[in-house]
C-alpha cells in the first residue's frame, strides 16, 4: 500500500529560481493493483517516485509506503520497496549473481535465505545460463532480467517502476511488462510511470495524469472516459492537459520514443 | 547491522576495484615497476656520470702568465690535466663544455711572489657542472699548495717556524655510520614518494566509486537499497584507503627489494660515493613512516571522495583532482629542499609536516614532541575531511547532480 499526502518537492535553480517539481500530490495505491502515473517529460513523475523510494526527501508533505513513513523511516521503506528504472544500472564488473547477492546482503537476508531466493528467482527468470557472466557482457534482455532479480531478491510488498521500458526494444519491453503483471498477480502494490499511453492503457488498473508537478486527474480508464469523453487514453490525456490551458505536451505511443523523464530533480546546477 | 553493511559495501567495492584496470595499474603496476626503475635507474645514471667525470682528463686553459715561467712549469707538471692553447673565447668554450676551466695568471706573477708583492689568480669555471667543478677544484688546490709553500719559504728565509702562521690544524671526520649517511641522502625521497603514491593510489578508486558510479547509473541503484548513506560512504572510503595504503606499501617493498639488489646490478661503487649508494633503510623507520603517513592516507581518501562525489562524471572529477596533485606535490617537494627544517609552525601544515618528520625518522632522528603534534594534527585534518565526505553523501543535490 502507498499513500501520498500532499507530496511537494521544490528545487533551486541558478537561472530559474525556485522550481516546484511536484506540487501537493496526493494519491493512494492498493495491493494487487497497478497504479499508473501518466505524464509528459518533466511532468514530475520521476521526482514523485524518487520521493516514494526515499532517494530524495519531500520539501513538504509525506507518504506512507508499506506502513512506513518516507520521511521518518526511510530505511524501512527501502526494505519494503523494489525500485526499477532505466537509470538504475548494474555494476559492470560484477557478475549477475554477485550483483543480486550484493543487494540481498544489503537487504539483510541471511546467507541461507539469500541462496534460496536466488535459486528461485534465477530459475523463474531463466538466468542460470549467465549467472556468472559479468554484467557488462550481458545482452540488454539479460541485463533487464538481472535488474528484475535485484528488485525481487528481498520479496518486497511494493514495486516502483519509473519508465522501465524507456529505450528498450519490443522483446525486452515485453519481459518487463509481463513482470509487472506478475507482481500484481502476486498481490504486490505496483506504481508505474510512463509517457507511453498505450502501455498505460494496457497495464494500469488506475491512472493518474500528472502535469507541471500537479496531479490533474485520477481514476480507472473507464472513469476518465466518463468524465472527459470518448477516445483512447491519449485523447483523454490531451483533453485533460489542454483543459488546464498549459502548453502543448509531447506524448508518444511508441515505447522507443522519447527519453526517460528525469524531471527537474536532475536539472539543478 | 551497521558494521555488517559497511563490510558488505567494502567487500563489493574491493572486488569491483580490483577488476578495474585503471585502479590496478595505479595501485600495483606503477609502484612495483616505478620503484626499482627509480632506485636502480637513477643510481646507475649517477654512477655512470661519476665514473666518467673521474676518468676524464679535463681540458683547461692558461690565460696570461707568459713572463712567469716557473708557475707555468709547475702547472704543466699537474697530472691528469690537458692544456688548451690560450684563446680569447675561453668563456664561450667553458659554456659549451669544450673547456672545463681556465686560470688567469696576472703579469709578473713569478716576480711578485719573489718580491713578496700582492697578486691574484682567477679560476674561471662553470658552476654546477660536475666536470668543471672537478677541474676548477684541482686548479684551486694547486694554487693553494703554491701559496702555502711560498709562505713557508718566506718564513724559513726569516728563520721563523711554519707554525707561526699555522698554530693548529683543523680536520673534518665523518663519524656517522655509512648506513646513516647514505640513508640521509636517500631519506628525503622516501616520505615524498610514499605521500605521493598514497595520493595516486587513492585517485582512481575514489573517482570510480563516486563520479564513475553516477556516470554509469549505479549510484541510483545502490541508493534504492536500505544501506544508509553514511555506511555507504564509509565502505567506499575504506576501499579507497586500502588502495592508497596498498600502493604506498607495495612501492616501499619494491623499493626495499631493489635497493637490496642494487649493488649487484650497479657493480663497484667508487669509495667516495659509497655513502650516497648505501641504500639500506631500517625497517623500523619504514614502519614509523607508515604510521605517520596513515592519517595522510585517510585525509587523501576522504578529500578525493568528497571532490569526486560532487562531480557529475569521471571526466569532471579528473579536472577537479588534477590541480589537487599540485597542492600535494608542492609541500612534499618543499620537504626535500635543503634547509627546510621542522619547526612549530611547519608542524601544523598538513603533508609538509609529515614529509619533514618522516625524513628525520628515516635518518634515525625521533623528535617525539613533533611526532605527537604532527600525528595529532594530521588526524584532525583527516577527521575533518572524512566528516565533509560523509556530509556531502547526505546531500541529494550532490548525489543527483547532473
Short description:
Chain A contains 9 helices and 10 strands. Chain A has helices spanning 45-52, 74-79, 96-106, 111-124, 140-152, 170-185, 197-203, 221-228, 233-243, and strands spanning 2-13, 17-29, 34-38, 60-65, 68-69, 81-85, 158-162, 189-194, 206-211, 214-219. The radius of gyration of chain A is 18 Å and the shape is globular.
Topology of helices and strands:
The complex is a heterodimer of chains A (269) and B (402).
Chain A: E1 2-13, E2 17-29, E3 34-38, H1 45-52, E4 60-65, E5 68-69, H2 74-79, E6 81-85, H3 96-106, H4 111-124, H5 140-152, E7 158-162, H6 170-185, E8 189-194, H7 197-203, E9 206-211, E10 214-219, H8 221-228, H9 233-243
Parallel strand pairs in A: 3-8, 3-9, 6-7, 7-8
Antiparallel strand pairs in A: 1-2, 1-4, 4-5, 9-10
Helix pairs in contact in A: 3-4, 3-5, 5-6, 8-9
Chain B: H1 2-18, H2 21-55, E1 59-64, H3 69-76, E2 82-84, H4 90-95, E3 101-105, H5 109-115, E4 122-125, H6 130-157, H7 178-187, H8 189-209, H9 211-216, H10 218-223, H11 229-266, H12 274-277, H13 283-310, H14 314-334, H15 352-362, H16 368-394, H17 396-399
Parallel strand pairs in B: 1-2, 1-3
Antiparallel strand pairs in B: 3-4
Helix pairs in contact in B: 1-11, 2-8, 2-11, 8-11, 8-13, 8-14, 8-15, 11-13, 11-16, 13-14, 13-15, 13-16, 14-15
Amino acid at each position: 500500500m502507498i499513500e501520498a499526502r500532499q507530496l511537494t518537492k521544490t528545487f533551486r535553480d541558478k537561472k530559474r529560481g525556485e522550481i516546484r517539481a511536484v506540487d501537493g500530490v496526493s494519491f493512494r495505491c492498493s495491493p494487487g493493483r497497478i497504479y499508473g502515473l501518466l505524464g509528459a517529460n518533466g511532468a514530475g513523475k520521476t521526482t514523485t517516485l524518487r520521493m516514494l523510494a526515499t532517494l530524495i526527501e519531500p520539501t513538504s508533505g509525506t507518504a506512507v509506503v508499506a506502513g512506513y513513513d518516507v520521511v521518518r523511516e526511510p530505511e524501512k521503506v527501502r526494505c519494503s520497496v523494489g525500485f526499477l528504472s532505466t537509470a538504475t544500472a548494474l555494476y559492470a564488473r560484477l557478475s549477475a549473481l554477485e550483483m543480486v547477492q550484493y543487494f540481498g546482503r544489503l537487504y539483510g537476508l541471511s546467507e541461507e535465505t539469500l541462496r534460496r531466493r536466488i535459486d528461485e528467482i534465477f530459475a523463474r527468470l531463466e538466468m542460470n545460463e549467465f549467472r556468472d557472466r559479468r554484467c557488462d557482457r550481458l545482452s540488454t534482455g539479460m541485463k533487464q532480467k538481472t535488474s528484475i532479480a535485484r528488485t525481487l531478491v528481498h520479496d518486497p510488498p511494493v514495486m516502483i517502476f519509473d519508465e522501465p521500458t524507456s529505450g528498450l526494444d519490443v522483446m525486452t519491453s515485453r519481459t518487463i511488462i509481463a513482470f509487472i503483471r506478475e507482481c500484481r498477480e502476486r498481490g504486490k502494490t505496483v506504481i508505474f510511470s510512463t509517457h507511453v499511453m498505450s502501455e498505460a492503457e494496457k497495464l494500469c488498473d488506475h491512472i493518474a495524469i500528472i502535469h507541471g508537478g500537479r496531479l490533474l486527474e485520477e481514476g480507472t480508464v473507464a472513469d476518465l472516459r466518463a468524465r472527459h469523453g470518448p477516445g483512447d487514453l491519449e485523447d483523454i490525456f490531451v483533453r485533460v492537459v489542454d483543459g488546464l490551458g498549459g502548453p502543448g505536451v509531447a506524448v508518444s505511443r511508441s515505447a522507443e520514443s522519447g527519453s526517460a523523464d528525469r524531471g527537474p530533480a536532475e536539472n539543478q546546477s | 547491522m551497521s558494521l555488517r553493511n559497511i563490510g558488505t559495501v567494502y567487500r563489493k567495492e574491493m572486488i569491483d576495484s580490483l577488476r578495474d584496470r585503471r585502479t590496478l595499474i595505479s595501485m600495483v603496476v606503477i609502484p612495483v615497476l616505478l620503484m626499482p626503475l627509480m632506485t636502480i635507474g637513477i643510481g646507475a645514471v649517477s654512477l655512470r656520470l661519476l665514473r666518467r667525470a673521474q676518468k676524464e682528463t679535463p681540458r683547461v686553459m692558461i690565460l696570461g702568465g707568459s713572463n712567469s715561467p716557473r708557475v707555468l712549469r709547475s702547472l704543466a707538471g699537474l697530472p691528469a690535466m690537458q692544456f688548451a692553447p690560450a684563446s680569447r673565447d675561453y668563456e664561450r668554450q667553458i659554456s659549451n663544455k669544450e673547456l672545463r676551466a681556465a686560470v688567469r695568471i696576472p703579469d709578473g706573477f713569478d716576480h711578485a711572489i719573489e718580491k713578496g708583492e700582492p697578486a691574484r689568480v682567477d679560476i674561471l669555471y662553470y658552476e654546477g657542472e660536475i666536470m668543471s667543478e672537478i677541474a676548477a677544484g684541482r686548479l684551486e688546490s694547486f694554487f693553494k699548495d703554491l701559496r702555502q709553500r711560498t709562505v713557508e719559504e718566506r718564513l724559513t728565509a726569516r728563520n721563523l717556524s711554519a707554525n707561526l702562521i699555522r698554530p693548529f690544524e683543523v680536520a673534518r671526520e665523518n663519524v656517522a655510520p655509512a648506513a646513516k649517511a647514505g640513508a640521509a641522502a636517500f631519506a628525503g625521497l622516501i616520505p615524498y614518494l610514499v605521500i605521493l603514491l598514497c595520493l595516486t593510489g587513492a585517485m582512481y578508486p575514489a573517482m570510480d566509486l563516486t563520479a564513475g558510479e553516477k556516470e554509469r547509473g549505479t549510484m541510483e541503484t545502490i541508493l534504492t537499497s536500505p544501506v544508509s548513506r553514511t555506511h555507504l560512504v564509509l565502505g567506499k572510503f575504506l576501499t579507497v584507503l586500502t588502495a592508497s595504503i596498498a600502493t604506498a606499501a607495495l612501492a616501499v617493498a619494491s623499493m626495499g627489494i631493489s635497493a637490496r639488489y642494487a649493488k649487484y646490478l650497479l657493480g663497484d661503487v667508487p669509495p667516495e660515493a659509497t655513502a650516497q649508494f648505501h641504500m639500506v633503510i631500517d625497517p623500523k623507520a619504514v614502519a614509523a613512516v607508515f604510521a605517520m603517513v596513515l592519517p595522510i592516507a585517510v585525509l587523501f581518501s576522504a578529500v578525493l571522495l568528497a571532490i569526486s562525489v560532487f562531480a557529475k562524471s569521471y571526466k569532471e572529477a579528473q579536472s577537479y583532482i588534477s590541480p589537487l596533485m599540485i597542492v600535494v606535490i608542492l609541500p612534499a617537494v618543499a620537504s626535500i629542499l635543503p634547509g627546510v627544517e621542522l619547526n612549530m609552525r611547519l608542524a601544523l601544515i598538513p603533508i609538509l609536516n609529515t614529509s619533514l618528520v618522516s625524513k628525520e625518522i628515516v635518518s634515525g632522528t625521533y623528535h617525539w614532541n613533533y611526532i605527537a603534534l604532527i600525528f595529532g594534527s594530521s588526524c584532525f585534518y583527516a577527521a575533518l575531511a572524512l566528516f565533509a565526505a560523509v556530509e556531502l553523501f547526505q546531500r541529494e543535490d550532490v548525489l543527483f547532480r547532473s
